[in-house]
Amino acid sequence: MSFDSFPFAVFLPVVWAASLLIRPNSARKLALLMASYLFCAAWSPGHALMLLGFTLASFWIARSVRDQRRRALLMTGIAGALAALIYFKQWASTLPIGISYYTLQAIAFMVESHRGGVVRSGLLDYSLYMAFFPRLTAGPIVRADEFLPQLRERPQVTSTDVWEALVLICFGLFKKLVIADNIGLAVNPIYASPADAGTARLLLAAYGFAVQIYCDFSGYTDIALGATRLFGYRLPENFQWPYLASNPAEFWRRWHISLSNWLRDYVYFSLPGLRSKSRVPAYFGLVATMLVCGLWHGVSWTFAAWGLYHGALLAVYRAMQSVRIRWPRVISILIMQQLAVLGWILFRAESLAAVTAFFSGLAGANSMTFGEAEWLAIWCIVVVAAAHVLEPWFSTLPTVMFRSWDPWMLLLLLGVALVTVAFSLPQQQMFLYFKF
Amino acid sequence: MPTRGISWYLGGALFLCASAALAWLFYFGGFNLLVADGSSSLQIELARTQSRAHRDASVLVLGNSTAAEGFRANFFNARSQDAIALNLAIPSGHIYLFERMLSIAQREGVRPRVIVLMVTPETLSLRSDFDFLLNDLTMLKTELDSTDFARLAAHAPDPLRYTRYAAPVAFRPVLYRADLRDLFAHPHRRMESAERVRHWLSDFGPKSEMLETNNEFSVCEAGPLEALDSTLRRMRQSRDPHLADMERVHTAYAARSHQPLVIDPSEARRFEHLLRTLAAVAKVYLVEAPYYDPGYDQYPSGFREAAHRAFEKAVAAIAGVNLLPPFPVDCGMMLDTVHLNRKGGEQFTEYLRTRVL
């Protein structure tokens, strides 16, 4: 049941209405939990069983290792979670929905429980934390202490919450169905056979995919955040205009924030040698952490290359921090954008040979004319680029424009919804990050 | 609470007007004014117009493109003294659309005594690359109303499937996706085309002839399948005027040859429901579309025979429905492997006329 499907358009309002009607907090949480498992089972009943198994096992382990006890059990739990994740990513025919995300949540919960820092909760709250359907399929990866305290009391859902949810869901669907899917239509054939594409098409594919993956994933996140807001809860932001980053470190503070924070806290800071006076362990740590990041997306050479590439960027940036180069921030932003686009070629290519063909084609002088799908993709890229250029202006807009239920904003949403319907593709395209 | 100024009320009024306009456009027939060439709803609008122009029709023909090409209503009407036939076959139409075409005709005042339903083996099959029911709903988008929620229950009995089809009926702009895209991308062209279509439809009256094609091409020229590709290459090089017709033969074959066509039980149940609905109104004649299959073998082995047995079984279970014997054809009567040309259509129409009247 994807966020952009009709069954979800019926499922969400029904569950929301039920959550408003159920008064006792425990009963409400139980209803949300059942709805979440129904959501998961709609993909496959086996996926729901997998989630249940993960939840029960990690809850029991977290309880058993609380406050620095039974470190060996903690290690076993982490190893088991990672082994299951690697097995499903590498060898299983289907990847259980959300496993890449709730595995990391479970590991973080067990580790924090061992450290003594996690909020204590019962099984119901923890189960809902693990299974909550708006964030089940592709995150954000939520910390227990960000979400569990919200479950203690029944939240009051205000009209402002509903309004913000409406805005987030509307714009999220626009980003996914109009921008990401239409760019994908033009870009996918080029990445399928880069050797056959001319220079212009390869450039379109490179920049197009950078915009596609941003709009696809941030669009999903907007819908997840909006759907969560309907129930009175809040999830952390996952994107902060990443293509306005001026250096690699800032990029990873703006892109897939929940994953980069998780990697920083549970991979990078766990590596040995970071406290030594030498900077070399830090550099290796950055490269190793980003390699893990790449492999988390998929066990393949291209994902590994992408991870290593970003690790190298971070290490080089860290090494160059003592070298002060003064140039306008906009130059730094433009440079970082090109570096990010280069990385996305590695990420998206179907093999290392395809990467080679891609770059060979870019270096060549062949060019071809664009078709209708490609022109639409170019327009989508221009729209997103313009939004980035205008971003500073957005923050200066008077807040009165974003008052809840303002009729001018309602008009804007109506227009966005109409454009979304008009330019969405007839065939449903899966969210990119559902595959990871 | 901040006081609301004129701007707020102006915005509110505009929002309400925009919402009302969109509701009229998508739910109350407003989009009929914007039906243009290439719109999937044009055939439905044409059928509705022809129904209104021929309310005295007593023979109603339903089906997909095989019936649209194969039944020659003008030929039928010229040879019938006391019966007028109305061909409401719609290309790519399927079971749900056949049922709705009857209700559209009845709403325009048509009271058929005989209904001829022309079917192909695919009527009873699902296809992996094409959703027949969604396609029907998309074509019928300007005609859908609240009764469709109840009708769909018979066509999509399990909750998930029902949601899948009822949701676009509820969120109807989704069905207008292609038209909206065309309107936004080419507004001037769209408006001009819509105006031409409106004028064209308004010209239809009781004296108007039914709209029909007059293609004389014969699939005899296609030859055996093995030679079709080389035939097409030769025709492209020589810019043969019949190239488009020959490519259509190739396309029709290619569309079917790799489909996992099997008799689907749910489709068979939907088909029986359709027959009962039609039989409640008039005498029904079921006829399998003629075909020409010179070793093209475009269906999986035994599929056509299985479909025939399923049709026989469905007809036997319902009173007032008759299955007509197959109509024999030769290649000279066929436009491609499944559609009759003008000559074949006239012969087939005469065959039907002598049996249903």
Give a verbal description of the structure:
- The complex is a heterodimer of chains A (436) and B (357).
- With 436 residues, chain A is an all-alpha fold.
- Chain A has 3 domains: 6-151, no CATH class; 159-235 and 366-435, no CATH class; 242-363, no CATH class.
- In chain A, 69% of the residues lie in helices and 0% in strands.
- In chain A, helix 2 packs across helix 3 and helix 13 runs antiparallel to helix 14 (301-319).
- The longest helix of chain A has 34 residues, at 159-192.
- The radius of gyration of chain A is 22 Å and the shape is globular.
- In chain B, helix 5 (95-107) runs parallel beside helix 13 (265-279), helix 7 packs antiparallel against helix 8 and helix 9 crosses helix 10.
- Chain B has helices at 6-27, 42-53, 65-70, 73-79, 95-107, 132-139, 147-155, 159-170, 177-185, 187-202, 225-238, 243-257, 265-279, 303-316, 342-356; strands spanning 59-62, 85-87, 114-119, 283-288, 321-323.
- With 357 residues, chain B is an alpha/beta fold.
- Chain B is built from 15 helices and 5 strands.
- Chain B has a single domain, classed as Rossmann fold, CATH 3.40.50.
- Classes of the chains: A mainly alpha (436), B alpha/beta (357).
Question: Which word captures the global form of chain B?
Answer: globular
The total count of strands of chain A amounts to 0
Q: Report mean pLDDT of chain B, rounded to a whole number.
A: 88
Helix and strand element order of chain A = HHHHHHHHHHHHHHHHHHH
Structure summarized in a few sentences:
The complex is a heterodimer of chains A (436) and B (357). Helix content of chain A is 69%, strand content 0%. Chain A is mainly alpha-helical and 436 residues long.
Key terms:
heterodimer; A: 436 residues; mainly alpha; 3 domains; 69% helix; globular; B: 357 residues; alpha/beta; Rossmann fold; 5-stranded parallel sheet; 15 helices; 6% strand
